[in-house]
């Protein structure tokens, strides 16, 4: 899943560890999300979105990810 996590984290001047501590996960989780190797749970997505004052839909690129999912699964 694509996200804007790295973009928002860097704009906020936060390290991966600082964000991880704020949302109660390991830095490996943040790294994996930023590398698109792991999709955050809904609760984690809400926690991260709240940190940056954005919606989950914006943070997680809802429209783009839905389009990609539809294409990969033959729904488009």
Strand content: under 5%
Oligomer: single chain
What would you call the structural class?
Answer: mainly alpha
Q: Could you give the count of β-strands?
A: 0
State the helix count.
6
Verbal overview:
The relative contact order is 0.19. The two termini are about 20 Å apart. It contains six helices and no strands. With about 80 residues, the chain is an all-alpha fold. It is elongated and about 40 Å long. About 65% of the residues lie in helices and about 0% in strands.
Outline of this structure?
The chain has six helices and no strands. α2 crosses α3. The chain starts with a helix and ends with a helix.
Give the arrangement of secondary structure elements:
Elements: H1 5-11, H2 16-23, H3 27-34, H4 42-52, H5 56-59, H6 62-72
